[in-house]
Amino acid sequence: MAAQEMDNSTTWGKELWDQFDNIATHTQKGIDFIERFGGFIRDRSAIEVEYALKLRRLVKNYQPKKSKEDEENEFSSLIAFKNVLKEVADLAGQREVVAENLQNQVLQGILLLAKNLREERKKALNQGATLTQSLHTQIGTLDRAKRSYEKAFREAEKAIESYHKADADFHLSRADVEKQRVNMNIRNSQSEDAKSEYANQLQITNKQQQQHYQIALPEVFNRLQELDEKRTRGMKEFIKRSADVEYEVSPIIAHCLEGIVKAADSINEKDDSMIVIEKYQSGFQPPGDIPFEDLSKPDPDAANNSQTHNSSTGLNHMTGKGTTKDKLKKRVGIFGIFTGNKNNLSTDGLKEDFSDLPPTQRRKKLTAKVQELQQKVAQEQAASDGLMKMKGVYEANSMLGDPRTVEEQLNESVNRLDRLRHELLRYQKLLEQANNQSFIQHSPQSNRVIQNGQRSSRHSNGSSNHENSHEDNGEDHPDDAGSLSSSSASPESGLGTSHTSLPGSGQGSTNEQPMNEEFYEADTPLGTCRALYPFDATSEGSIPMSEGEELQVIEVDQGDGWTRVRRFSSKGWEEGFVPTSYIECTLYA
Fold first, then answer.
1. pLDDT tens-digit profile of 252-274?
2. Is 97 left (phi over 0), alpha (psi -120 to 50) or beta?
3. Packing angle between helix 217-265 and helix 20-61, nearest 10 degrees?
4. pLDDT digits (tens, 9 = 90+) for 198-254
5. pLDDT in tens, 41-85
6. Tell me, what DSSP letter sits at residue 478?
7. Going edge to edge, which strands form the sheet with 550-555?
8. 532 within 8 A of 563, measured Cβ to Cβ
9. CB 298: neighbour CB atoms within 10 A?
10. Closest to 259 in 3D by CA, of 476, 90, 375
11. H helices within 169-216, ranges in order?
């Protein structure tokens, strides 16, 4: 037995043979203590779960919002922060692992141990109580035997004394003396019997008491000692196990921390600066120097152009040239009247040809669009090839399927493929045009550009004399609003008749009457353009053109996606607007 294997000099059965109640109290407190330790593990596990939950909520709350543009141009600091959030989420996962292992490997073990200890303690205490009760019963029997012996002994002595008195008394008869003698013998016999019973019970009691205190009860106490030491060993093991739970996840936690450090090391401020350049670079050239205007020197071209200027001024009332600055600023907003289906906006609010973007950003968008369309073409081509193979299989074996069903799907796929290829070709041409654009573009922030040594409005009709006359009158044309031509009202504004309408005609369309050439000197062409695609004029103020047709540029695009051009037809000179994305411009130096 385990109790017999213990060192007798250090056992509870020997050293604490008389401390049954204290041992019972101590073992109860020990079990209560380990259950309290189990409560500590349970609460700590709950804290770990709560901590992990809060970490995950933290990661979710600070997760950057996803956008296609940010994914294309992500800063290294943002990428690093996303990696940090990922590592923190992994740390939260490890805290959950710690909580789970504490519950399954530590808390469950503590609860099971406490339950077993309670059952073993109860059995040991019940056995000890039984042994003690048996000893107390035997001692009670011994006390009763002793009292019987004492009573019988006193009665025997009294009978002997009575006999001796009767034998010495000569007045008593011999019968009375004999009676006293018989009574004496009976009492002596009873005393001897009680004495024997007392001696027997004493022997039994001493033997049982020796067995109780040297063997039986020490075994119970040693079992309680073993039980308490088992509880202590369990406490030691569970504390170590709780530390091992932390050790098991420490390599992963260390890896997460290394990932955070690695994310920090990946941040490159120079690369982020280059991303800012790529993201916001417009591609415009800075404005040139503004020339000095010496008012003391007469303008040699003023006399030559005065007649043209006067003619143009005379038409102010029917061309809209005399409109105020407030009306001029409405050009872009009013221009939306005939922005038809040729320049629809995309889902991100940009025009389909991205003509409202700066050159560099437009090239990037066009490149991305070309790549997207190429991918779609490849996917559609693969689908079409698969349908072709399926159709061939069906034609070879009609049992597998009806070729006509596949043929309908194949026709739809071919139509989609043709549309995608046509759209791809269009964007490839737009990209080629954007890459090969030869003339210098200036930022919209510059209000003036230099042309042929004269200062003129950026969106003027090219006549410096007219611009000078406006400056002499103190007028200015803000670049952000977009100026009207100095000799014609914008066709879409509806403020007056265009060059093509004669005074009193009441016609405002540029397509109805030929333009009077005598006013044409006021609109010097800014350059030429070639039509990349055919265009049907469906809106008021626009003119049709055929693919490859050469036209004159009268007013460049002011950011609304339309360019004013001039063409010569059978009706004479026509002037109107065409989509900027449909033409390739070459401006005069």
1. 999 999 999 999 999 999 988 98
2. alpha
3. 20
4. 999 999 999 999 898 888 889 999 999 999 999 999 999 999 999 999 999 999 999
5. 999 999 999 999 999 999 999 998 876 666 656 889 999 999 999
6. -
7. 572-579, 562-569, 550-555, 527-531, 583-587
8. no
9. 9
10. 90
11. 174-211
The rounded distance, in Å, linking the Cα atoms of 573 and 567 is: 6
Q: What are the phi and psi torsion angles at 562 (to 5°)? A: -130, 145
Instruction: Tell me which residue of 498, 496, 501 sits closest to 488, measured CA to CA.
Output: 498
Sole residue written with tokens 């349908």 = 387
Q: Could you tell me which of 210, 258, 217 has the C-alpha nearest to residue 90?
A: 258
- Nearest 5 degrees, angle CA 480-CA 483-CA 486? 165
**Judging by beta carbons within 10 Å of its beta carbon (0-12, 13-18, 19+), is residue 181 exposed, middle or buried?**
middle
What is the C-alpha separation between 110 and 38, in angstroms, rounded? 6
Helix 359-396 / helix 403-435 crossing angle, nearest 10 deg: 160
Considering Cα of 410, then 412, then 418, then 424, what sign does the dihedral take?
Answer: negative
The reported pLDDT for the residue numbered 517 is 41
Q: What is the distance between the alpha carbons of residues 572 and 567, in angstroms, rounded to a whole number? A: 8
Token couple for 115 = 């339950």
Q: Report the chain's C-alpha Rg in angstroms.
A: 57
In terms of DSSP bridges, do strands 583-587 and 527-531 run parallel, antiparallel, or are they unpaired?
antiparallel
CA angle (251, 254, 259) in 5-degree steps: 125
Name the DSSP class of 509: -
